[in-house]
Design goal:
With about 160 residues, the protein is mainly α. It contains 6 helices and 3 strands; from the N terminus they run H-H-H-H-H-H-E-E-E. The protein is globular and about 60 Å long. The two termini are about 30 Å apart.
Length: about 160
């Protein structure tokens, strides 16, 4: 069977799940095939960002916010599934932060895989800046420390 990647929409797990269920009902599937499909469907492409990539960004965005603030930013980074637009990734202070900050950011990144303090937010902004133009089209979810978190579509 020829499968078009556009039809499958790999970033959309519901689309993948529906595709397999329509073509391979569970009652007609061998156990090894069912296990393989379960594993494939369990992999969420939103977690493709590595710890090595994420930790400097978490530090750049929230090193002065403590562990909870870092955990919130880490969760929002996971929710957005990209580092595009995360300006803290290149903040000049990152390499001057002490080791304990790096350890906290690493711990926050790992914990964010099972904890989301931001209610699905994928964007954030400091309360010390005026509300950004993009926030008007998004839903405010929560304020944690000096960051307001928003949920909405990214381009």
């Amino acid at each position: 069977m020829k499968v078009s990647m556009k039809k499958l929409k790999l970033g959309n797990l519901d689309g993948v799940r529906g595709f397999f269920m329509r073509r391979c009902p569970p009652t007609q599937m061998s156990l090894p095939s069912a296990v393989a499909i379960f594993i494939l469907l369990s992999i969420n492409p939103a977690y493709a960002i590595t710890e090595k990539e994420a930790v400097p960004c978490i530090i750049g965005e929230a090193s002065n916010q403590g562990y909870i603030g870092m955990l919130a930013v880490a969760g929002a980074i996971r929710n957005r599934a990209t580092l595009k637009g995360v300006y803290g990734c290149t903040a000049p202070h990152i390499n001057r932060e002490p080791q304990y900050v790096w350890n906290l950011a690493s711990r926050a990144w790992r914990e964010s895989s099972s904890t989301d303090l931001t209610y699905g937010a994928n964007s954030w902004e400091s309360i010390h800046f005026p509300e950004p133009y993009w926030a008007k089209s998004m839903v405010f979810t929560i304020q944690i420390g000096d960051h307001k978190f928003y949920k909405g579509g990214l381009k």
